[in-house]
Amino acid sequence: ILGFETSKSYRLQNCEYSHMERSSSAQVKDVDNISKLPNDVLLLILSRLSTEEAIRTSVVSKRWEHVWKQLSHLVFDIPRIINSTELRDSLNRVDILITKVINNHRGHLESCVINHFPYHGVTGILNTWIQSVTCVKHTKVLTLTNDFLCQNPTNKIFDIPTNSFSHPSLTSLSLSSYILRSSHPLINCSNLKTLKLVLITAPEVGVFNRVLTSCPSLEVLVLDIVCVDNKSGVPLKIENNTLKVLHVQAMHYIDGIQVSATSLDILIIEDASFGRDGFFLRSPKLQFDRNFWAPGRFVPHMSYNISKEENSIVHEEFMNNIPRPFFRSVAIMAASMSVSVDLRNQTQVERLRQVLRLWTRKMMGLEIIFKKDYNDATTTEENSESWHKKFWKDNINKDAFPSAKFRVKTVWMNNFSGSEEEFAFASCLIKQGTVVDKMMIKTSSLPARKKLEIEAAVVKLEALQTEDERELTIHCF
């Protein structure tokens, strides 16, 4: 951004530098191979720079003057700009420069990030930026953060205008540190597939319910929300058959949550102010038996139905966006996970490995639900025998599954059948010392003959431990 203010000094320095080069060595020929590269390559170089640094390259030469204007990602972090430049005494100049950058940019944007001060909303310039990046730049991913730590000299709470985020090109919206006095800013947002509300406060839960009703096409929803008035007794209602990922980071002063989502594959609840009676879930793809509500507190929990699809939006969202905040917040707390996986499907097994490897501390509980889709061509004995036998053999003898560092206090297997791959999986967890305290295998719901088969398999699992390693107990329940 500062490139507009310093272009003259940069050109002067370049001229002085060129003069010195010519005078010191007349035989050396000036060669600028980088500038000869095509725009696509130059844009790839600029994409590794901050927005300010990329814009400053416009003063290098005429070749570079307009390259930055084709960038697909722009980031405006106003608090950092103010603290790191001489413009701290002139906020208005920064606002003018950001407006100029947005207007001079050419083409459409994949994403735009704006970290601003509260007064930008009061003066209306934030609304101007929002309109420009959505309606003119057709931004697909928009992230807005209100730096509430900066004092607002007007002491006014600003309102984002109605339908600010309903442009059809906008598919992902992240709002952080705002007060939603009504649902008007998010009315008619059927265009949104991803919505992240972080540190968002509303006067009552009905505001959030109306927002979610106005976003019927959501596939990913992240919530860290607070209600000022919790006397209504109305729960948060999420009814959406396209929703695949629901991540509840925190819900304060909300009496409960009702979720009806037939496509939901991932449910994460980190913190909840309501008890077991306030939780209702209708999601046929998620299966778990564990009670997350310990006496007097809620235990952070994650449920993941691993998909067999080669290109999974759910898994991509999980790996790229969920682990950092989730595992950072539960690192010093008890946390558990329920996962549904088909051990005869190579894609699902690899995804299970990736998920468990992200866990940096000892997991309190891991519930495994074995999927048994034997009618699926990808899970037939003919297609899976060669790879899964080699896979488990390699993991038992060489490579730890999921890693040598992963540890879990208790593992539950509710539908353990004793099949070859399930036995190999349990053997890996035992031999590697992955399970620290208990391995619980449910047999109470099985017929007597099958129960005896499972109990025989359990005896074999117990035999895998040496006398010195019998700290792990294996129980049937």
Automatic annotation (TrEMBL):
InterPro entries: F-box-like_dom_sf (IPR036047), F-box_AtFBL13-like (IPR053781), F-box_dom (IPR001810), F-box_plant (IPR044997), LRR_FXL15/At3g58940/PEG3-like (IPR055411)
PROSITE patterns in UniProt: FBOX
CDD domains, alphabetized: F-box_AtFBL13-like
Pfam families (UniProt xref): F-box, LRR_At5g56370
Every F-box domain range: 31-78
This protein's name: F-box domain-containing protein
Organism: Brassica napus (Rape)
Record lineage: Eukaryota, Viridiplantae, Streptophyta, Embryophyta, Tracheophyta
